[in-house]
Design brief:
Length: 154
């Protein structure tokens, strides 16, 4: 069956517009100044007993998630190794809070004391209807910076 050219062209334009809109929504993080959400990562992280690393900082959350859960996600990058790990659930009451997150170094044993990159994100996740994707993640605020990892006794 042959699809009329005008119909096929309009479907192609519609598909391209939907893909562009989805890319913009997914790729554009929320600006913390717009909603009052903010997060920071401290400039020093800790390696604990050689088997885990802890990052910490502060956050303020005023935008509640539709599902009621906002979490802190931390990522550490050093010498080609990348480790992402979660922290506690955030309290969205408009007040400033401390956060910390600890990740195990089992899969990234090369992480060592010294310079590294770190990122912290406030994010909410909710189940969506439909087949793809089943979970929608919204980034409410983020902070990236160079950090110094220190080990006990240094």
């Amino acid at each position: 069956m042959r699809i009329p050219t005008a119909f096929a062209a309009s479907r192609l334009v519609l598909a391209a517009a939907c893909a562009a809109a989805a890319a913009i929504v997914v790729a554009t993080p929320a600006n913390s100044a717009d909603f009052g959400n903010e997060i920071s990562v401290q400039e020093q992280g800790r390696i604990v007993e050689g088997d885990s690393v802890t990052l910490s900082g502060t956050y303020r959350c005023v935008t509640p998630s539709p599902s009621g859960a906002v979490q802190i996600q931390a990522t550490l990058v050093q010498d080609g190794s990348r480790l992402s790990f979660g922290g506690d659930e955030a309290v969205c009451d408009g007040e400033q809070h401390q956060w910390s997150a600890t990740g195990k170094l089992r899969m990234t044993p090369g992480v060592h004391a010294g310079a590294a990159g770190a990122e912290a994100r406030l994010q909410s996740a909710r189940l969506t209807s439909g087949v793809f994707p089943p979970v929608s993640v919204s980034h409410l605020a983020a902070d990236r910076k160079d950090v110094e990892l220190v080990a006990p006794g240094r």
